[in-house]
Amino acid sequence: MSEIPGYLALRAGAGLIGLLPASAARSLGRFGGEIWHATAKGRRTMSERHMRRVLGDEAEAGRAARSVMKSYGRYYAEALWARGKRVDELRSQTIVDGLEQIIGAREEGRGMIYGLPHVGNWEVAAPVSVDVKVPVVAVAENLPNRRITDWFTKMRADFGIEVVLATGGTEVMRKLEAALSANKAVALLADRDLKGRGVPAVFFGEETTLPAGPATLALRTGAPLLPVASYYDGDDGYRVVIRPAIPVPAEGTRSEKVRTMTQDLAVEMESLIRAAPQQWHLVQPNWPSDRE
Question: Which of 23, 153, 185, 289 has the most C-beta neighbours closer than 10 Å?
């Protein structure tokens, strides 16, 4: 019973935002982000720290952090506004750079892995893949409220995303390997190590840990690891960028190869984030010094 109030509140919010025109929903989301920036000191501080790493400018970091949280507000508003019937509209407003990377990987027949940073609306990248007959599978957090988890799973299905819930067991890896063997794409957010069990990597000039999953899957299956980002492009558009596959080292142990590929992916993500730093929706501690 304790799950029901939160779930009903979410559905009510989605229902109300869903009644708005797209432009009004986005404006409401940005306004919510402004309020969040003004009231959530901890998140604001983290965003400012991350912007300093990206921009190298103390004065600019504060302004950029405000833009980050407004952009994140837009993301959440779009998540509540989106419906299956609106996905074609979003897709029609999307420009794609590097689609040949997906098509080439599809022809190789070993599936593909998308390594994404938390930039823009990353879910908009899925219809781009589905359009060229590459279904998308993604791992999502198994939230304590099962009803909300089920609702988000359905929402992502509207975008063409098949969700595998992160249960912490080997079953998740088996499901992802099966998806790749079926020539599907596995989309993995790769710029934050949620559980702190990743591999060391230098990211924006400071060592941290990043998820080992993308590189590990690529090595185990032979699927190419493609860096991908999905940006906001103006008030109502999107731009998806697909970069060439991360090279697989010719020498070294499996763990050494995972570390090398993860570091190479970190470099690619730095470039993708620097293209639109105000859209990098990372407001949690991500480096050891953030937690001190």
Answer: 185
